[in-house]
Write a structure and sequence with these properties.
With 474 residues, the chain is an alpha/beta fold. It has 20 helices and 15 strands. The chain starts with 5 loop residues before the first helix and ends with a helix.
């Protein structure tokens, strides 16, 4: 779950400025001035040592927004204007999903346990007595000291200290990753292992320095629109949790960007329900103990890379996006399709699907509204309202509710696993060994479901309230 913070504000400010200059037709001419304008002379750097460091960080943070991963081999003398020009001319999107802005990274030290000045140098010395590696000594002032070359981060000293003077300091991005896909190199820079990463996006919002970025497709989409290519937007059901507006008003605003139509993925969700219900019935009748959903791409990545024993239990039904693409292609055979959603995982699903072209996150669509000065029109009406059950896929329990409504005869005994953290990954591993207490398991990477996706524009508490209102529950 993301909380509003300064790194998020900077990311959105940068994106909005770049989009505004694209709209004005002067992106190439103005982009090199953006870091200087955002961090002018005599200004106080936002969390950096000086404005020069701040400007360097801002420069490199604009590269993934323009669609470039951070490359160690990039020439530092290349101006942003060159990158912007190439971004506007390219015809193919970059295949990298996440990148680490090395200029912004390195602040976190791999030292998990630290003695604070709360240490009393007590007679008990429980920390020293119970350390299995003799890593604790006492300084002249009587306070404990941890030798980090010996420390194995077991945490026994922290538990033994009666004064709570020993604290655990995590490396935030590594701490939230459920599969250990992000680790420091010899220079202290975090690197993402694509062979392990499940694209849950937790690391993006966990980093206090905003050094982890998605490689955006915003300017690929804008360039395609400028070339007068036909683009259809398909909007994830969770978009109703991001704006205090009706789906008709949201769709109309999306179309103002240049899309020929904005369709609801909730329509495809009903096809997923029908197919998944039939598949569940077949598998239960064949004697299989349970089946899990297949809607969440991060869960599918988890199964493929780390939880292969769960593969036989995963539904073969496509996600709602899959069937909505078919609907969009049937209606507009010569158009390109753009998915609009809340997560990083969909970037991987889009990359793997041959019939969809681009993806935008809710954060990106909101900055497009800001950059293009687009406002929601209250009079806009829904063209083709989707069933409420399909819209319910946006939150935890939504798939379960749809299956139970459409297939009451199955006697579904549901289990909801919402939040792919280390604990729930272990739980799923236990289920795969035959210890599941139900016969239908809905798995979502995010706490509360897609409405709390890592790439939303509002936090989960606010998104939950907006979504309940949209569903007529308030």
């Amino acid at each position: 779950m993301a909380f509003v913070n300064n790194t998020m504000i900077v990311r959105r400010e940068l994106m909005s400025k770049l989009i505004h200059h694209f709209k004005e037709g002067n992106l190439v001419e103005e982009i090199d001035r953006i870091p200087i304008r955002m961090s002018p002379k005599n200004a106080q750097a936002r969390g950096r040592c000086c404005i020069h460091k701040e400007r360097a960080v801002l420069k490199y943070k604009m590269l993934p927004i323009l669609g470039y991963p951070i490359d160690d081999e990039e020439d530092e003398l290349i101006p942003l204007s060159d990158y912007a020009k190439r971004a506007l001319e390219r015809k193919e999107t970059n295949k990298t999903i996440l990148t680490v802005v090395d200029e912004a990274c390195t602040a976190c030290v791999k030292t998990n346990y630290v003695v604070t000045n709360l240490c009393k140098g007590c007679v008990a010395r429980s920390c020293y007595m119970n350390c299995p590696k003799d890593a604790i000594s006492f300084m002249e002032n009587g306070q404990a000291h941890i030798n980090h070359s010996k420390c194995i981060n077991c945490g026994i000293c922290k538990e033994a200290c009666m004064y709570h003077s020993i604290v655990y300091i995590p490396v935030p991005c590594e701490e939230v990753c459920p599969v250990k896909a992000i680790q420091k190199d010899e220079n202290g820079i975090e690197h993402i292992d694509e062979d392990k990463c499940i694209y849950c996006g937790k690391c993006i919002n966990a980093c206090p320095f905003g050094s982890i970025y998605e490689v955006s497709q915003v300017f690929d989409i804008l360039s395609a629109i400028k070339r007068e290519e036909k683009l259809v937007a398909i909007m994830a059901p969770s978009i109703l949790s991001q704006f205090n507006n009706t789906i008709g008003e949201i769709a109309a605003a999306v179309e103002k960007i240049g899309f020929i139509e904005a369709m609801e993925v909730a329509h495809g969700a009903m096809e997923t329900t029908r197919r998944e219900g039939d598949e569940l019935q077949d598998k239960l009748e064949a004697g299989q103990q349970f089946m899990t959903t297949s809607c969440c791409p991060s869960y599918i990545e988890l199964v493929n890379k780390h939880l292969t024993e769960m593969k036989p239990f995963v539904s073969h039904t496509g996600s709602p996006m899959y069937y909505t693409i078919e609907m969009a292609k049937e209606k507009y055979p010569d158009a390109k399709v753009v998915f609009i959603g809340p997560c990083v995982g969909k970037r991987k699903e889009v990359l793997d699907h041959p019939d969809i072209d681009y993806i935008l996150t809710f954060e990106e669509i909101d900055t497009l509204f800001t950059g293009f000065a687009i406002e929601m029109v209250a009079s806009a009406t829904e063209k083709e309202p989707a069933p409420m059950a399909g819209r319910g896929f946006a939150r935890a329990g939504g798939v379960i509710a749809a299956i139970q409504t459409m297939y009451p005869q199955l006697g579904v005994k549901p289990i909801s696993v919402a939040n792919l953290n280390k604990k729930n990954v272990a739980l799923l591993r236990a289920y795969a060994k035959g210890k599941a207490p139900g016969n239908f398991i809905e798995v979502m990477a995010c706490e509360g479901g897609c409405i709390s996706g890592p790439c939303g524009k509002v936090d989960y508490t606010q998104a939950q309230k907006i979504f309940k209102k949209a569903m007529g529950e308030i």
